[in-house]
């Protein structure tokens, strides 16, 4: 967890050393390219200064109880800036070598591709990414991304580890067992997959796509229609040389990362949710389950991680959770309205006319039977790894989840129901929370 603001001296040293590294990598480039690198470093210094003054981005990937809608008021483009914060450390990774210029261009295009839906928008994309990268969801030793970036830069400039460790706690590693680490390639794959897992979401679910015989449903033969589209579009962007932040990978490494990302995105199809949890539980309870040293077990766990991040609002504190629920039900009701206009069967939870009788019941059922079993599996894995006494899944996520269930039950018993206006515009916006 981030322990405090980044000292100015470290911002200045970071900016100088970061630019120095980029210049060394760009000696054969034109003056124009070097000028662009200067601009990039200046922008990054501005972002870091903004984090220090507003405490805006520094919690992404470090703090679970992060209200992205509040953060968006300070950082208008959280997916671009937050994604840059999470992925830019890999500019100096020997395994990945992400080009920061290409990274920012890629993130801008990803943000553009997200549609202004009430729920499935770019804010959801970065929210899920921050959750997937945060220690409670990811039971591996992870460094806070801001510290991670400063650490790598400071080590690259050969500053002593002792001086770094004394810098206001910025040498701290989140987690306990330092052997439980993801490789850089896996971490990058998880972050990109999380950022793009709902890219270009049309605000309609797979059931609508299939029933309406949309071109996407015909393209993907009614199988995980949206998830296949999200994965395909992600790699269409990466196939653009201007946007291919994985361009430095060798062919085999790229294929490995591509397969991981596709599998992670496809795993977010809720149609396979219960089968995935059941299969994971069987494997976890079997002899030899080892997500640290067994590649297949680790991928199974990463699929649980991205799934838990995708529906992670259920384990957020009540105000943020309630707001996300109001936004998703807006999107559901808009779909139901369109299904009625088209003469299609109204999908489950999408009938606006059933709001008064079904809303609270559906929220409780979703948390109890969909979200809770997922976090129970993460909690079990957390117990297998050396997290020490902290156990963040148990002490943060599971407690938030239990509180949210209790809140919905209390509302079901007589509190005023939140209103969802008929025929919402579909624009991304904050829902009005009930008093």
TrEMBL record:
Gene3D superfamilies: 3'5'-cyclic nucleotide phosphodiesterase, catalytic domain. It is an enzyme of class 3 (hydrolase). GO terms for biological process: signal transduction. Binds 2 divalent metal cations per subunit. Site 1 may preferentially bind zinc ions, while site 2 has a preference for magnesium and/or manganese ions. Residues 43-415 form the PDEase domain. Residues 412-435 are annotated as: Disordered. GO terms for molecular function: 3',5'-cyclic-nucleotide phosphodiesterase activity; metal ion binding. Its cofactor is a divalent metal cation. Keywords: Hydrolase, Metal-binding. Coiled coil: none annotated. Belongs to the cyclic nucleotide phosphodiesterase family. PANTHER family: CYCLIC NUCLEOTIDE PHOSPHODIESTERASE (PTHR11347). This is Phosphodiesterase. It comes from Cystoisospora suis.
